[in-house]
Amino acid sequence: MKEPIRIELPMLQPKMSVNAYLFLDPEPVLIDCGMNTDATLALLEGELQKHGLALGDLAHVYITHAHIDHMGMAGRLANKTEAKIWVNPFTLPWTRDLEKQWQKRAKIIESALVQEAPPGWDNPVLRGMNGFFKQALACWSEIPAESLNVYEIGETLSFGGGDWEVLYVPGHSNTQTCFYEK
After folding, report:
1. Higher model confidence: residue 13 or residue 114?
2. Residue pair 48/40 in contact by the 8 Å Cβ criterion
3. Taking a C-beta distance cutoff of 8 angstroms, is the pair 18, 70 a contact?
4. 162: Cβ–Cβ under 8 A, 6 or more apart, which residues?
5. Which region, left, alpha or beta, applies to residue 166 given φ > 0 means left and ψ of -120 to 50 means alpha?
6. 3-class SS at 61?
7. Rounded distance, CA 99 to CA 45, Å?
8. Residue 114 belongs to a domain
9. Residue 164 lies in domain
10. Residue 132 maps to a domain
11. What is the largest CA-CA distance in the chain?
């Protein structure tokens, strides 16, 4: 197995980035894809070109979890390519009803932020999160149903010349998976 190629993609926060990983053999596979922004798309296209590839060469895009910086671009890639988009069962609801999932997440965060707050307290962090959520929704694209596939926890995926066990690893996100290659 060859090492994956790390692709550093921008985030909404200035001077921050997120990693996507490209495997070339036996077919081009991308792990996570960044936000749905023109800047992310241009950077991704440039990185693929460095390896003699175009977007249309991607065969599969595997999403590790339901965060904008890991799957926001997935729908756009599905519309521009024939790549199959793969998500885990915990991420699947985010592909079907994004607005509802965002509302649930916002309520959880709001509950955590106000749980110990004094009555009537104006929480600047909460106001900032609400603004972030609105901005983030604009950087997320819907994945067409015909491009969407589900990989299962415990399943073994073959890409990049290796066999990868799908592990469920909640913590950073309750939808988080990782791929383990012995």
Report:
1. 13
2. no
3. yes
4. 1, 181
5. beta
6. strand
7. 29
8. no
9. 5-94+141-180
10. no
11. 59
CA distance 58 to 41: 14
Is the pLDDT confidence value at 126 over 80?
Answer: no
Identify the helix (H) or strand (E) that includes residue 121.
none
Residues 14-64: pLDDT tens digits? 888 999 999 999 999 999 999 999 999 999 999 999 999 999 999 999 999
Q: Which residues, listed in sequence order, are joined to residue 19 by a DSSP beta bridge?
A: 8
> Is residue 103 situated within a structural domain?
no
Give the pair of three-digit tokens for residue 172. Answer: 């950073």
Q: What is the CA radius of gyration of the chain?
A: 17
**How open is the CA angle 143-76-90, to the nearest 5 degrees?**
35
Contact 125, 115 (CB under 8 A): no
Dist CA 58 CA 54 (whole Å):
8
CB count within 10 Å of CB 105 equals 17
Q: Residue 152: inside a domain, yes or no?
A: yes
For 149, list phi and psi in degrees, rounded to 5: -135, 155
Counting the structural domains of the chain, the total is 1
**CATH number for the domain harbouring residue 33:** 3.60.15.10
